[in-house]
Design brief:
It is a single chain. By secondary structure, this protein is mainly alpha-helical. The protein is built from 15 helices and no strands. It folds into 2 domains: about 35-150, Orthogonal Bundle (Cyclin A, domain 1); about 155-245, Cyclin-like (Cyclin A, domain 1). The longest helix has 23 residues, at about 225-250. Belongs to the cyclin family. Cyclin C subfamily. Keywords: Activator, Cyclin, Nucleus, Repressor, Transcription, Transcription regulation.
């Protein structure tokens, strides 16, 4: 898996030259927002994709692929040109096709309308985002992604590692759920964009073993992997949880400012 990853467009085009500074660069058109507000908006949109996926009974891999699509798109694009709510629906639509489990476009637009319309009485109004909007946005998203549709995820490695070390480091269902949830959480952080998925999986298992009162370094000693890098990722993951709380507190004001920036859907 690692060998395939190093040769993939995921690594060569979207990770090899990417730095944290690139992810923290504000688009010149979005300068009315500061970096914390931008990151807070991205977190809100990731939550929206998760809610959309849950409503549509879409599996988590499709949602995770959609999040990567969304993140890649906004590496170069602006909120002023593309409403992130529309991009969320579009990313989920594209992702469902990539993962060969295509969601119905009408279901996406209906659920998107319901989730982004705060008042029940307003839900009978015209949809802000129609099927036509998503189809048009799809072209721009795919172009921004440079037509790179292959994406790697940490989950296969996580399952493989868990199975390999289950006998030596017995853990209960809570531990596996913790590992799975932590892996899902990485999609809310910069880590998933900056580090190879199999490294993310090792870092997650390291933290899970520590939580289960094992020495995570014992596991790393048995793996042919950069120990320091895994521990560094694990540390960054722990730190991001506190940062996440602060960003969530900003969401109300950030989304209010976003409403003044995004294109008018009825214009």
């Amino acid at each position: 898996m690692a060998l395939n990853f190093w040769q993939s467009s995921h690594y060569l085009h979207w990770m090899k030259a990417l730095r944290l500074e690139d992810l923290k660069r504000i688009n010149p058109k979005d300068t009315s927002l500061d970096m914390s507000e931008v990151e807070s908006i991205h977190l809100a949109m990731i939550s929206l994709m998760e809610e959309l996926g849950a409503r549509l009974h879409i599996n988590q891999i499709i949602i995770c692929t959609a999040i990567l699509i969304y993140r890649r798109f906004y590496l170069t694009q602006s909120f002023c040109d593309f409403d992130p709510r529309l991009v969320c629906g579009t990313a989920l639509f594209i992702s469902s096709k990539i993962e060969e489990c295509q969601a119905r476009l009408s279901d996406i637009t209906t659920s998107l309308h319901e989730l982004t319309t705060p008042y029940t009485e307003d839900r009978e109004a015209f949809f802000e985002f129609t099927e036509k909007d998503i189809i048009e946005c799809e072209f721009f998203v795919i172009e921004a992604m440079q037509y790179d549709m292959i994406m790697h995820h940490p989950f296969p490695t996580l399952i493989k590692l868990y199975d390999e070390f289950e006998v030596e480091f017995p853990m209960d269902e809570h531990s596996f759920k913790m590992a799975w949830d932590l892996t899902l959480y990485t999609y809310r952080t910069h880590l998933i964009m900056l580090h190879p998925p199999f490294m993310i999986a090792h870092a997650v298992l390291f933290l899970t073993l520590v939580d289960a009162a094992y020495d995570g370094h014992d596991m790393l000693d048995k793996c042919n992997i950069n120990h320091d890098m895994v521990v560094e990722i694990a540390t960054e993951l722990q730190q991001s949880i506190e940062e996440h709380k602060a960003l969530c507190a900003l969401q109300a004001t950030s989304l209010a400012k976003l409403a003044e920036v995004v294109p008018d859907p009825f214009a």
